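queue> holo job accepted (zinc ion)
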Amino acid sequence: MDHPKFVIEASEAETMAEKLGLKSVLHLLPTIVRSSQKLSRVPISNFAVAAAGLCADGRIFVGVNLEFPGLPLHHSVHAEQFLITNLSLYPQTRLKNVVVSAYPCGHCRQFLQEIRGAPNIQILVLQNDGDNDKLDQINGCPDDDRDASFKPLSYFLPHRFGPDDLLDKDVPLILEAQENSLVLDADEINENGNLCNGFSALEERELVSAALEAANRSHAPYSGCPSGVALIDDQGQIYKGSYMESAAYNPSMGPAQAAVIAYVAAGRGGGYEKIVGSVLVEKQGAVVKQEDTVRRLYPYKYYCKQNIFYKHFIGLNVSGNYCYIKDSGNYMIRSSI
Ligand SMILES: [Zn+2]
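queue> job finished
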């Protein structure tokens, strides 16, 4: 595959498998993983990881690892987290099989626990020598070479701590419909637009609405602090990222990273300097706040270079980052500058 993608429709996957003479779409996953490793953005480690997930409806989703120079390493995104976040952009999908180019780390094994039925997700780790790339042992699963075949997540994380330990069974989990019922007070939004850099009031309202929608789709049952981020690029395209919590807290996916994943997964390519504005929606007084991370992840020096602002939005020279924060029932607009 010359141009790997982050979402492959079922019909396309079937055609690809057929052309390659493979037994099934499942056998296509290693090829997709290998070709997708080039999509990772790993300037610190230079260790490219890719993961491909096959869903019940036949679609294939891809994830890669992302690293952010200048930031602490815990802001990094792993391929499996990217994959799940990518999946979350398409609600009501059921993940069946995952193939990954390196062993899932502890965080990723834990993060996967947030999916309903997680212990039964089948995982295959490709070997460095490529010996199992053809998945000859999919059906055989020989006992003497267990890692060369699909194994359930319960094999990789046998003694699990997860949602079952903290939540009622009817609480929606990751990849299930969420509704947090956050509402913005329209009166708090400047009719003339609050964002700078040449955004129109219409673009701003769309960006705010996108961030609100992302916050309302956030999975935050453990803290009760849902949040969402929306980014806009220099072409006016908007990308949404929802906060997704883990029962173990640390592996949680922040909305700032989730929005970057949406940007990368959209496949425009190129650097992050194309991101020229962002909006965060979160509750004021929340015990889990994302504002600091948003500021860190989208500083002008890295994501939003001022010369790009001047180039694309003539005559304006101020950042487009704003936080909308709920205050006693109303949302207040606060510049993050
Ligand atoms: Zn990991």
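queue> The radius of gyration is 20 Å.
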